[in-house]
Write a structure and sequence with these properties.
Distance between the termini: 112 Å
Protein name: Extracellular solute-binding protein
InterPro entries: SBP
Number of strands: 10
Signal peptide: 1-23
CATH class of the largest domain: Alpha Beta
Radius of gyration: 27 Å
Mean pLDDT: 87
Order of helices and strands: HEHEHEHEHHHEEHEHEEHHHEH
CATH superfamily of the largest domain: Periplasmic binding protein-like II
Pfam family, one: SBP_bac_8
Shape: globular
Number of helices: 13
CATH topology of the largest domain: D-Maltodextrin-Binding Protein, domain 2
CATH architecture of the largest domain: 3-Layer(aba) Sandwich
Structural class: alpha/beta
Keywords: Signal
Strand content: 15-25%
Oligomer: single chain
Number of domains: 2
């Protein structure tokens, strides 16, 4: 019996719906396949500093990509060596923000908590993207506080400049900065600090020499008025200048943090200001003799709480938060402690390392943090004019 026209129409419509449904399923399956083929999204971390920082961040990248996180995100590292244009990172970030760039590869950066105010001052309050505690559950274990930017920047390690000395030649090291200055004058040529523009340890020595004459509040104030109070500090540095390390009969200020460490390792000097983590790394790998010890002075040299921050111009804030969460996890903190003797921001009793013994007595909560914004660059420029020229 022949079907009536409306029966054929109904049958055709049903077939069309089925075809559409199948096509929809095919498209969905194709989309899922394409998404799967695309693999994990890339999250790029930008970091700067000395070689020990680079090695540590490379270890973090490897561990992160091998973890469960690696199934969803692929972490990459962009590293800028200390003294080789680190300032250009902040310049590029600010340029990207001011030109309204979006979806750049500046997903996550390392920075000190002291530089937060400078970024925000130049780039606006929305320069960084706040992290969500639900995406960074390990944040509840972080004991270290930041001076500014709570809820936006995440501390991941502590670092400070200390006095390193060869105990074989200096059995009784100075305990105060005044005792250090007296020792320098009593032992001509046996102390060195690197140019402040080439590394943080030399910068810390210079900053401490100036700011020890100022009230404590000046350490966290970028008001240009404090420049008028720098004279006593610069006079002190001029007074110390003739007693510093010499080569060829002239005072020499080494280049970079490693420059002073090399002098100490070779026995050309007996004492230097140096980053605690960098020195411990050199002790662990045999780069320094075992007779080298660390001590903190009173008042202490300045240091930093190093943090992670998510620039708003980045393209992968979710991936950035996953990396942030990993770096403050027990696994991440263990890597940083083992690789660079980073002072943990979590309960250190949960971590075990040979470096823990060398870090004993260094309490991050009692570090002196300096946050003076653009005054830091001006201070370095003035050192170049007033002190650096004395060596020529």
């Amino acid at each position: 019996m022949k079907k009536k026209w409306y029966q054929w129409l109904a049958a055709g419509a049903a077939a069309l719906c089925l075809t559409g449904a199948l096509a929809g399923c095919a498209n969905k399956a194709s989309a899922e396949k394409t998404k799967k083929a695309a693999g994990p999204s890339t999250v790029t971390l930008w970091a700067g500093g000395s070689d020990n920082v680079r090695e540590s961040m490379e270890a973090i990248v490897t561990a992160f990509n091998k973890s469960e996180n690696g199934k969803k995100y692929k972490m990459k590292l962009e590293f800028i060596m200390s003294g080789g244009g680190a300032q250009s990172l902040s310049s590029r970030l600010l340029a990207a923000k001011k030109t309204n760039q979006k979806n750049t590869k500046y997903d996550l950066i390392l920075m000190s908590d002291g530089s937060f105010s400078s970024y925000v001052k130049e780039g606006g309050k929305d320069f960084f993207t706040a992290y969500k505690e639900s995406n960074v559950p390990n944040a509840k274990n972080v004991k270290t506080k930041v001076s500014d930017g709570k809820g936006v920047i995440m501390p991941y390690r502590g670092t400070t400049v200390v006095l390193a000395y060869d105990s074989k030649r200096v059995p009784k090291p100075p305990k105060t900065t005044q005792e250090l200055y007296t020792w320098i004058k009593s032992h001509p040529g046996r102390f060195a600090y690197n140019t402040p523009g080439s590394g943080g340890s030399g910068s810390s020595f210079v900053q401490s020499s100036l700011y020890n004459f100022l009230p404590e509040k000046a350490l966290s104030d970028s008001d240009p008025k404090w420049q008028k109070e720098w004279n006593k500090g610069f006079d002190l540095l001029k007074e110390l200048h003739p007693y510093l390390y010499k080569s060829g009969g002239k005072v020499v200020y080494p280049n970079k943090n490693q420059g002073t460490l090399d002098l100490l390792a070779n026995g050309e000097v007996d004492m230097i200001p140096t980053w605690a983590d960098m020195t411990i790394t050199n002790l662990a790998n045999g780069g320094l003799p075992e007779t080298v010890k660390l001590t903190q002075l009173a008042p202490a040299f300045t240091g930093d709480v190093d943090c992670l921050a998510i620039p708003s111009v980045g393209s992968n804030p979710e991936g950035a938060q996953a990396v942030m969460n990993f770096m403050i996890s027990k696994e991440g903190q263990q890597i940083l402690l083992d690789k660079m003797a980073a002072i943990p921001v979590v309960d250190s009793s949960t971590l075990q390392s040979e470096n823990s013994k060398r870090l004993a007595g260094l309490d991050i909560d009692h570090f002196r943090i300096i946050s003076i914004g653009d005054l830091g660059s001006e201070l370095t420029a003035q050192w170049d004019r007033q002190i650096g020229t004395l060596a020529k």
